From TrEMBL:
Its EC number is 3.5.1.28. Residues 209-231 are annotated as: Disordered. Residues 28-169 form the Peptidoglycan recognition protein family domain. This is Putative N-acetylmuramoyl-L-alanine amidase. It comes from the Bacteria. InterPro entries: Amidase/PGRP_sf (IPR036505), Amidase_domain (IPR002502), PGRP (IPR015510), PGRP_domain_met/bac (IPR006619). The keyword Signal applies. One of its GO terms (biological process) is peptidoglycan catabolic process. Residues 1-22 form the signal peptide. It comes from Phycisphaera mikurensis (strain NBRC 102666 / KCTC 22515 / FYK2301M01). One of its GO terms (molecular function) is zinc ion binding.
Length: 231
């Protein structure tokens, strides 16, 4: 079965007038919960909210080339339930270094957080990797742009309102990491989201390494090892 757009759009999102969103950004391909091994969840009604703003994160754990994002999702689910006492993973969507987008928490329910701020109204989008120690790669950037554009259209959210974890919890975290944050602070991520929302080609240039910043990318696969000559 091919990956599909998320099946559980909020009724509030579905009721957006077609005249307002004549040509919204297309839904990206989503790896659904059952595909990565996520269990069905019963959420406390106290977590029900009206989603309004996309909030960007990084995992804060260095990505190991060749690792399985589905296994990472299952590990995050176990950690969330067993260590934190949360009903589900704290992110609504998770973007892997290979560009796949994974379904997480139901959009109708507010995320959980390790920091002190009110998460009500936020839609959490996480990029796997630690962008204090790694660089975000082009494939992951492109996928993040597309899922954010799709969500922003359906939330009727101005692109300028896109938020980061460090922005809503100042002094508590460096999330989403310096290497990813510069695309947001410099405006290139927002420009790419606006292009996607307008139905234009998405182009986001990968920036050179930060001075004294990470050099290596969070790569989906191990680099190929050159074959040695028999001579």
């Amino acid at each position: 079965m091919p990956d599909a757009p998320a099946r559980w759009l909020l009724p509030a999102l579905l009721l957006v007038a077609p005249a307002v969103l004549a040509e919204p950004a297309p839904a990206p391909s989503i790896v659904m919960r059952e595909r990565w091994g996520g269990e069905e969840v019963e959420y406390p009604e106290a977590l029900r909210h009206e989603p309004a703003t996309v909030l960007l994160h990084h995992a804060g754990v260095a990505w190991r080339a060749g690792a399985d994002p589905a296994a990472s999702m299952r590990g995050l689910l176990r950690f969330s339930r067993e260590e934190k006492g949360w009903p589900d993973v704290p992110y609504h969507f998770v973007v892997a270094p290979d560009g796949r987008i994974f379904e997480g928490r139901d959009l109708r329910y507010a995320p959980d957080t390790n920091t002190s701020f009110d998460p009500t109204g936020y839609v959490n989008v996480e990029l796997l990797g630690n962008f204090e120690e790694q660089r975000v790669n082009a494939t992951q950037l492109d996928a993040a742009v597309r899922v954010v554009a799709w969500l922003a259209d359906r939330l009727e959210m101005p692109t300028a309102d896109l938020a980061t974890h460090a922005g809503v919890a100042p002094g508590q975290t460096s999330c989403p990491g310096a290497d990813f944050l510069r695309y947001l602070d410099g405006g290139s991520f927002h420009a790419a989201v606006d292009a996607a929302r307008a139905g234009e080609p998405v182009e986001i240039e990968v920036l050179p390494p930060l001075p004294d910043g990470p050099q290596a990318f969070a790569e989906a696969e191990e680099p190929a090892v050159p074959k040695r000559s028999a001579n």
